Amino acid sequence: MSDFKLRRIDEYRWEVPREGAMRVPGIIYSSGRLMKAMGQDESPKQVANVAQLPGIVKCSLAMPDMHWGYGFPIGGVAAFDMNGGIVSPGGVGYDINCGCRLMMTNLGQEEIRPHLAKVVNTLFQHVPSGVGSKGALKLPRNEEKRVLVEGARWAVKNGYGSQGDLESMEDGGCLPGADPEAVSERALERGKDQVGTLGSGNHFLEVEVVEKIFDRDVAAVLGIEEGQVAVMIHSGSRGLGHQVCDDYLAKLVKHVDKLGLNLPDRQLACAYIQSPEGQQYLSAMACAANYAWTNRQMLMHWTGEALERALGMSPRALGMRLVYDVCHNIAKIEEHVVDGKKMLLCVHRKGATRAFPPGHPALPDKYRKTGQPVLIPGDMGTGSYVLVGTQKAMEETFGSTCHGAGRVMSRAAAMKASRGRSISREMEDRGVLVMAAAKGTLAEEMPEAYKDIDEVVNVVHGAGLSRKVAKLRAIACIKG
Amino acid sequence: MIIVKPYHTFDHTADLGLVIIGPSEASLFANAALAVFDIITDLARVETRETRRVSVEGDGREDLLVNFLREVLYLYNGERWLLKELRVLRISEKGLEAEARGEPFDVQKHEICKEIKAVTYHQAQVRQTPAGWTARVIFDV
Description:
Chain A is α+β, with helices and mostly antiparallel strands. Chain A has helices at 32-38, 43-50, 89-92, 109-112, 116-126, 141-150, 152-157, 163-166, 185-191, 216-222, 238-259, 276-311, 315-318, 391-396, 411-417, 423-429, 439-444, 453-462; strands at 7-8, 13-16, 26-29, 60-70, 72-81, 86-87, 99-108, 204-213, 228-235, 271-272, 321-327, 329-338, 341-350, 353-354, 373-377, 384-389, 400-401, 433-436, 466-479. Chain A is 35% helix and 26% strand.
């Protein structure tokens, strides 16, 4: 139970007042109802802990899907001054560039419904998923290192997708500054056969139908039409990303001791951005981020193949196209205006999504007018939201918004609550066909374990951090 | 004989918390390694066909435990090898040497029940109590 006294600022914001070693206050975006659940765990304290880190600018932020993490809260956003600020592997998370991508198809839901069982079976066989899943590819070291440097460009060059896909990804699917020399042999070993695999836990591949359009003009630009079939993929950098995080945490825990920095939690271990240690982590993080984009690009390619095979369609008839790809575990070097001054910052988003406004130079031409597409997956089998970034997000949250529903029940509690029930049958009753590699996953990931996605999205929409464009409903789900 | 597991899990919203006990510091560390593999797989199906050396350094007991579990986890996550037994040969606050026995993962023979992706420093604790030793650690799953 958190002993923090939170001060309500307005309908959607709570302040964690600055006290003790905090350098800035904390701000939590939430609703009254969601706040009740958040107050139960230690996440507000984690917001306060992040506020103690050197070089933090303006405030330590948390999105309405916030829950207890380790070090940083999940749903946390924090920006650090390039001069005198830090970068923290724990502030990015283990699954570096864990993220989502959404693809639309030419299919109407009535075309896929009769073949849904076949579609799910084919996807399950064709797209590697589950614990320790290995891909259809085994990369020799030199090729793996190319993946780390080139990101999704490597996949496109090798026949997985088209050049046009690249502009529909954050940073064109490749973070600059990636240096494979900063990545350990262990990380490379774990990454050699996992590119193009979904993984386990909360990762998924979902077939969805566009249920509701909130903004017709923006939806039209994004190519989203009511009743159309879409696919959402949620995955990250797999074992390679975890190993990179682990390696640098171990290194920086020692580094922090040497610097004499007094941190409230060792998991917050960090290095000054401009130090050799900080730069080295950023190089390794970029490698893992690029691996993740390659991973999702290949997952998309195999998804297309599986759908074509199951439905007996040509790629042209299926017409699968990438709407956008976002990362929600990452640190990015970005320019923001703080107190009227332009500043270069290292923005950490741990379980938070970038939400840049219309006109931002980082956006591809086709989305310059709409703002950046933001993809928010709900809990298993619920569906997803598509939103767009806003100027208000730029002003208040360093261009950031929420990343998902956010857990409300621990995995153990979910297992207990699911005892004697068939979660897959319950999902089927709700019109969602589910297939999972491990049986425990379904129970741990059952819908009650998560916050209400509608409420989370209504908070970021109401607070003006992003605008609702469309809601998608799941009809089939592959879990790792 | 009733076998009481020398560990239990505790609730952490997103992840997996473990409390481990042992009569001595060496057995605490050995039990921690076993707990990890008891969660990952069905240990009854793992045989002790091979021996591996685990050697880690640490800066205090918590750091040593996290580093040790990091190495133990890598046996599966990096080398696809399953641990069945672990004997601590030498332990101090600064370092630990142990011998692990087990065998390579074989998809025909073994089951992977749960993936443990990493060990965290968050609220990691090692304490000596009147009854022996106890540790607490949170894993990313």
